[in-house]
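Molecular record:
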Amino acid sequence: MKRIPLCLILLFSLNAHACLNIFAVDSTGKAHYLEHWFFFSIEFKQKEIAKNCKAVEKKLLAGDYSYKNVSDYGAWLLMAGRFAEGLDLFRGLSKKFPSVYEVNANTAVAYELNGNIDSALYWENAALKIRPSAHNNSEWIHLKILEARKELQSDAGWCLKNNITGVVNYVKEYYRPETHGEGRSMEIFRQFIDQLGERFPFTYAGDKVMGKLMMELGDAYQAASIYRSYYCYAIAKYLYPALAEELNEKMRLILMKYPAGQTKLDGQSITLQKNNSPASKEMTAPEEREVTQFVNKLVHRPAIKNNKIKPLNISELVKKAV
């Protein structure tokens, strides 16, 4: 999701590394050096949601009814799982402030979380007209996700036959190992990281669109780091089990490109080929135990704890917003 204040900090912490000694293996089995490379970790802090919701509520009760505070309050309600109340707030707020990007973008999120994809698309496009370069130019990814969700409404197998984005072709065209991961392809990876940070708090097993998106991202990472690809494929397999056979084969081929030794894929031992590449974490095949722990952060996430949050009068908030 997007336009939800601080969610990158609170719910999906991104480890941005300015490392100077990272070596990675690409899909050809060759090692190359990556400068200022990064990947993501998953962290859910539900207690922070209630804390921040209360902080904004305190401002409102003190008489500060700026549309920003009201919008922030609605965003935290959505993060707390109060989807209906959040939609009520943004439905009203968007009528009063139709030219404010954050309001339109949050309205799109609210409609999406409530299952109204047509309205989500309308408000997403409205937001992008106001600020096309929003969120580090990454909003095109959310638009593609919404378009795919729309397709799924009429064709349950759409994601098996189609890609969500053109990220793989883009990276194939622009990624150059000799630039150490800098340039246009690096920017598109950053855009995906930004969007994943906002979407994973609302992503659960059975999400075909996000599953296919992670598979595509894994395919794109093959040009730079098959270690990253492997993790993307593991998440994709959890989200969209129908892709498991294809993903298992992709993961098996990745493991074969690493130095001699053994690892496991779905409980089966895989013998790795020799490779004299420099040693580093990404030069070593992903360990199934670590990958499972990573995916389990999604599987066993804390439940959305909204029982302690009693929303203020939504209609009054919208009426007083200035």
